[in-house]
Write a structure and sequence with these properties.
Layout (H helix, E strand, L loop, with lengths): L2 H4 L8 H22 L10 H10 L3 E5 L7 E4 L1 H6 L4 H4 L13 H14 L1 E10 L5 E13 L5 E8 L1 E4 L1
Helix pairs in contact: 2-3
């Protein structure tokens, strides 16, 4: 089955999560534009419409918070399918667990570089799904996410290409 066929819909999410992810989508999109200098998706309409477009986008968009051991706090439909998780499982997952132990140091280096520079492009790495399926992510952009007040609230990543290992 293809990832497109497995994807959840935004309207199918619990109402509280729709509300939270609508606000967070705005932070992701605004931060991407501010850091990278272009739009991640076509903007327009209200916050809800933009959140729905980001969730349905044909690429991965995923983010984690700013905790000492960051927890994933957003994943669009492709991200949920690729990591083989429900939205509830995703938001309970420490971000570091998306990578196998032997590659976490390289992942952490990219996150630190992103923290310093604002964003990094062209990253490639190996990730692992909840079920243990390994895949290589290609040409990833990672950026710092800030809230509406400009306060740091985590980091996000997007990519459209991956390959099974």
């Amino acid at each position: 089955m293809s990832l497109a066929a497995e994807r959840a819909s935004f309207a199918g999410l619990p109402e509280a999560l729709q509300t939270r992810w609508t606000a967070h989508s705005r932070a992701l999109l605004d931060s991407y534009r501010a850091r990278v200098g272009r739009e991640l998706i076509a903007r327009g309409g209200g916050a809800r419409e933009e959140a729905e477009r980001l969730f349905a986008a044909p690429f991965v968009a995923v983010s984690h918070g700013a905790e000492a051991d960051p927890i994933l706090n957003y994943g669009n439909g492709v991200a949920l399918a690729l990591w083989e998780v429900s939205p509830q499982q995703l938001i309970a997952t420490p971000s570091r667990l998306t990578a196998e132990a032997e590659v976490r140091e390289a992942r952490e280096h990219v996150l630190q570089e992103t923290a310093r520079k604002g964003f990094v492009t062209g990253y490639t790495g190996v990730r692992v799904s909840r079920t243990g399926r390994r895949f290589r992510i290609l040409d990833v952009t990672v950026w710092n996410v800030t809230d509406a007040d400009g306060s740091p609230c985590g980091q996000a990543a997007t990519f459209a290409h991956w390959e099974p290992l």
